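Blinded run. Sample ID left blank on purpose so nobody reads anything into the name before looking at the predicted structure. Input follows.
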Amino acid sequence: MLTRRFFTQGLGMLVASPALVSHARAQSGPSIEDVLFDPDQPVLGNPDGDLSIVEYFDYQCPFCKRNHPDLMRAVERDGNIRLLMKDWPIFGGTSTRAAQLALGGLADGSYARAHAALMATHGRLSDHDIDTALSDAGVSVDGLRAGYSAQRDRLDGLMVRNGRQAAAFGFSGTPAFIIGTVIYPGALNTDDLANAIRLARS
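Blinded prediction complete.
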């Protein structure tokens, strides 16, 4: 059974597992506006969709990358999902560089391609792996680097906010999801994801 927690503005998180209800307590934390509508956060899928899915992820996280194709298929099939991939580079400098380069693609519209290319890699990455994956996808590494450098303060601020949100939610690693207003710490398989989307819309 999935561990679920509910995320509501003003209340923070409430633990929904029956075994833990008696120990649940309201916590201050990020608001729904902070998490779902950060003006610097790129949005995939349908920006005007009626359901938001948030994933806190790292480009070196094997579980994030393994489940990403299922997530993207679900978003495409649905057609009405706002997908917010929140960079939380917890595996060191290489992860941070990958996130910086991908976000640099916001400047010239290549973010989605850069993101997809990096999510299609396997396992731990070197700088060479990152550059090769991006170049093979037809994305200019120099262009990404320039895009990041031009907006460095804004993009670094976004990643700092993502990390603070993840800490406030008590996430212990990647991936972690918010679907609608329900928090799912950990990976979601295809059935879990479909059930979570149905629950959010029910």
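Unblinding after everyone has recorded impressions. The chain has one domain: 5-201.
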